[in-house]
What does this fold into?
Amino acid sequence: MLSYILRRLLLVPWVLLGLTFIIFGFLQLLGPNQRLSTYIRDPAQLKQGPEVLKQLAHKYGLDDPIWIQYGRWLNNVIHGNLGYSESANMPVDKAILRFLPASTELALYAIIPMIMGSIWLGTLSAVHHNDPLDHATRIMALTGWSFPTFVFGLLVLMLLYHWFPAGRLSIWADRIVNSPGFVRYTGMNTVDAILNGNLPVFLDALRHMVLPVITLSYVSWALILRVTRSSMLETLRQDYITTARAKGLRESVVIKKHARRNAMLPVVTLAGLMVAGLINGVVIVETIFNYHGLGLFAVRAAQQLDFAAILGFALFNGLLLVMTNLVIDILYAYLDPRVKLQ
Amino acid sequence: MRMSSEYEAPGRFYSFVLWFFLIPVRIYRSKILRKLLKNPISVAGFALVIFFAVIALLAPVLAPPARPSRPYQIPRSGYSAVPKPPSPEHPFGTTEGQYDIYYGIIWGTRTAFYVGLVVVGAAAGIGIVIGSFSAYYGGLIDEGVMRITDIFMSFPFLVAAMVLTTILGKGLDKVIVALIVFGWMGYARVIRSEILSIRELAYVEAARALGANDVRIIFRHVLPNSIYPILVQASMDIGSMVLTAAALSFLGVGAEPGYADWGQMISFARNWILGGQGNPLQFWYTVIYPGAAILFFCLGWNLLGDALRDVLDPRMRGRKA
It folds into this structure.
């Protein structure tokens, strides 16, 4: 177990190094002036003559050999210096930290209905194997799998906008949240509202989250449902299930205690895919619902060719995914002792 | 010996080409097609894919381009922003900027097939070459190549494609390149694990004993037996790649404005989604038609891939689907 975790941990620095190689490679695809724009705060500086630009390039070391540039860039990245974002008008690391809580809040709320709903439906589908219920669930899952998030989100918005508005807060609530009396502990509106004891703001924040959460949880539920179903089908054929039934246990106990707990193992491996799906989903969902989080920040940066911001965003998400996968792998080794034998 | 290898070289090439073009024949002979046609889910998938293929082929007839030199440019009747409802001239109405929705969907079908087939073809090709290379030589090479695939997989797909497209610049070809760069890893992994299990089988050993060289073993003996999982994944991927390309256009980093592309048609609809005064569904046609086109296109390929997997997965054989 320990050696497995150690081996797994030793891989992380290499993957992270590779990650920086790719991002730095992206940076090299840009033209010299575009690359310069990731360092400069004032875009007017780029409109000066070629002489000035050459001096600027020299100042930031863009005419050095590539490995020296990479070393300098890596040093900056390690110290959290990701350049200056024109679209957000602040350094990229500050912008990411500022928009992160909103997206985290969204993702946390989305995970709950996603996991509970799909595991419940997947179990139901496996228990009623080949019944009309099973077929209906399968078709729903396949349709859900093919349904583009952005179309689904727009349809939901079109039908329910009247009751559940877009954005993060109503204007009056936004004023309260940004007033000096309101302490922002976490940056997540619902949590902060509870900590400040302000029920109306909490309800308003919740109302704005309904549609994004529905759309975002819709992204991955089909995948989890399918894996739960097939893994349950596999588990229900095991001998120990027959034993459990033979000793006279109630069927609900057999399903819930004996079968489902073991069937959950393959679902845990999906967690990495799920997190990746959530990150992708957050980008689209925040754009549709005008929800000011990390995703919307990245999309605006992409539309305005704010290269420092999108490269920082890509690096941050890569880091996030590598760390999530590390945690999941270790968790899996803990849950399933057979893993360490491999 | 030299002579013989010179004589063999073109023969090997032609046999490879022949093998490649015989894939459909193999599929037909292996009764997979007959099994697929018995399954109602896969028949529905086939029907959808063929329906879209016919639309794509007949695009010049169904929606004659106003300017034949640039058929992918959606014609616009005026420059007013407000979409207009369906009418005899515009069967599906016009979207923001008076782009004709019907025309955009018909020619967008061609775009979808183009994106899906090119991206999946290139990604599968790259993946197969890298994966078989890695599996066949094993050891340090294998370890290194697999770590590289890990690195490419450690980016969320849509985010990576969005960032790379932004850097390369606007346009459908940039989207395709970005999707290929971050789309090959799955194929490399599948083909690698297939080859690792097949490599040890007796018939490969026999071929080696008969003096077949590495390339011949990989292409003649190993790949044909490990190609089916790739086909399943390719079928599923065509849908999801088209979906991602559409998402990029929707986010505003994909096709150029006015290019016949489903994702872009939906991004036109974005500003009108809330409808007019007292009627939230006023502009329903701007999102329903392109949305339905994407949904059914992806559904068709996914149904096909799902049925293909059920037919090809040996563990599923002899069991009721």
